Amino acid sequence: MEPRLNFFKANPEAMKALSGVEQHIARAGLEKPLMELVRLRASQINGCAYCLDTHSADARKAGEDERRLATVALWRDTPFFSERERAALEWTEALTRIADRPVSDELWARVAPHFSAEDIVDLTVLVNAINGWNRLAIAFGKRPA
To answer: N or C of the chain: less Cβ packing under 10 Å?
Structure first.
């Protein structure tokens, strides 16, 4: 697919608004490695090559382990992720696939003990943001350089 549209040039105000959400996320209490894992998992589910390339590079720069990057798609089957990370990844998957099924009380019971109320909101905003970026990149044909 050829690039269809440079969405940053086409609507700088909209991109400024989304960038404001990213600035909030950057100031949030969530740890950087966790945020990159969330971005990677949502981007895998959505099939966003651009975001996978970007966030795997960002994770490497931040010191993320190659084994964890290689297995984040199958996080349930590896011992490489903490309980907090597992909760975040499960939350990410549920929200990214929310049209398939509602977020269950059982999932909530697994996620809530690992995060403060503020952190759960920030985690949810992060998942919403990466899903939005994925949709922009996919819809407009943005590819890795």
So the answer is: C
